[in-house]
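Batch 3, record 17
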Amino acid sequence: MVKTIIEPFRIKTVEPIRMSTRREREGWLRECGWNLFLLSSERVLIDLLTDSGTGAMSSEQWSAMMRGDESYAGASSWFRFEQSIRSITGFRHILPTHQGRAAERILFTLTCGPGMAIPNNAHFDTTRANIEARGARAVDLPIPAAAHPEEDHPFKGDMDLGRLENFLREEKGKVPMVMVTITSNARGGQPVSLENLRGVRRLCDAHGLPLYLDACRFAENAWFIRTREKGQGDRSPREIARDVFALADGATMSAKKDGMANIGGFLAGNDDRLARLERDLLILTEGFPTYGGLAGRDLDAIAVGLNEALDPDYLRYRVASTAYLGDRLHAAGVPTVRPTGGHAVYIDARGFLDHLDPLSLPGQALACALYLEGGIRGVEVGTVMLGRKDPASGKDLPADLDLVRLAFPRRVYTQSHVDYCLEVILEAFRKRREIRGMRIVEEAPTLRHFTARFEPE
Ligand code: F0G
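Prediction for the assembled complex:
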């Protein structure tokens, strides 16, 4: 039997990559203050900054865009969008938003405030920032394996049910909801099992709390459930996704990931009273409830994209292409989060640069080193993005992990691009002792990683 997994698509439109030299990149790094977010994309060879909004749309999606109905109210695009989401999630109320964080802001504005706390397997940066902007606490309760990058676990995104139970008891009256992020982006793109979600549901029921999913990568999560969870191997990703959503009371979603679109998102749920309040807030800041800050053509692209994301051929290729890089790096001794995640390979920068202290920002140093070596743009997920300040001294505290995430845009790069990345990373690994730490010279009070400036130590 032929074992090679091929990209299950042909390429119809291409976008040239501008080649660059190490010397050019050295100057560009200085110009952007060693912050890859501040780099112009033309200066990037392989852009693995994010899988968000960076995917290639299919010919079916482009056709659907032409069908886009740009009516202000009641556009047919909206009904196709709503129908597509309802058939996958089963939720009663669906509100379109311009991206995931808009859904988060609306949800948290209405449900949380000072003194409250929202537990999650691992909050991602925007979720955490939106909760904290309300004066509430965003608390991570991952299973212990998540703290050990090298440890293999089929569902390393699972929530620690024991800690959740204690947390709900101790924080009684202060918790407006429990959230679970599928897959766990802050912790390696790791999936959450159906069994774990059922356990979270039971605890929510025992405490009378709603369960919300941060569902950005629900299709990739469904594929991992199919391939790794007992008894799920014969089921379609769609059936599994349906079971997952049936356990929840609502979801926030960035359609820029498993919506296969370049922009968009939604907030969904079954609570009639809350949905009315959400709708009113949506009108205030996003737009009328049948477009919510999106063009009709965007709604149509998402309606089609959500279904394409559940195609087993696509998901098999998607997960295999990420594992292709992750497994080869692992075999060559490069420390990575094991097993390889769905949308990204996460390099353990603390292990890679074990001569650096966490406060020398090994993730940022490594991200810059990979850019310098081969023009690859990844992102630090560690002390810069998720670190806290010591309330007493105002000094930085290290995050639990310092990772560099190499996130793969959907249907964009081919195997030779990935082979190139492998070579570049292995070259940087050979020269790792030469890589110096970084310090922050300028930063914003929230979500500082987007705009901070750095310099080598
Ligand atoms: N939740 C998760 C788990 C995410 O990964 C993201 C975005 C969001 C919420 C917010 O969605 O960007 O549409 O507002 N993650 C991107 C990333 C930015 O690079 O991982 P958004």
